Amino acid sequence: MQNRAAQFVDTVSRHLTAGCVLEAMASALNDIGIDCFCMNLLATPKQKFEEVILASKLPSDWINLYKEKAYSEDDPSQRHSKRVVRPYDWKDAPYDSEREPRALEVVHRASDFGIGTGFVVPIPGSAGNIGNVWMGGYKFQILNRHKPSLHLMALYAFAHVQRLNGTAKQNVKLSDREREILTWIAAGKSVIEIGEILTLSDRTVEWHVQRSIAKLDARTRTNAVAIALRDGAIAF
Question: What CA–CA distance (Å, rounded) separates 77 from 106?
Fold first, then answer.
């Protein structure tokens, strides 16, 4: 799956529309049952969901119902993705079925459309989460070992679409050491392993990691890697 993520990054970097990015994701992930996607910003109380969708590959009837019923106001996942940084299974977004009948309705109606399961990647920003990427399908079946690669792919895809939309920040300059360490992180190495490879202490490696995160306006290592890949600062 890590090789597939690397191929995806290389392919998507050449795409010029958000629709092409989602088609590339579908092509890369179809064999594990992922062929539906939604990429959106987190709506403010005054925004409608259609105003914050960046790209979507969902059943049109579901999107129309979701907008008509204003489900984004009660969708447990939209709420949960504001609060967490780590990816999660869509069905695990918490809600109270007795006190929140609308949330229960969202979950049931999604199942009616065959998209009641999925994987959600929150998109972190410097002052909190700014959006999320949902991916799923009628034959959705991913293993835990797939999730780190899906996480990176979603972060990269979102960052690339931001760039296409003109909402990404200007590139920042990373030092040679910062690029080197982020490249090893992209390859799946831990801080301890990177320290051994580069003959650096764990503390020094972590210091460079945190510097990179701050420079890239990221919140996590994976987020920083995705932005660095998008900007061409590192490569797989």
Answer: 10
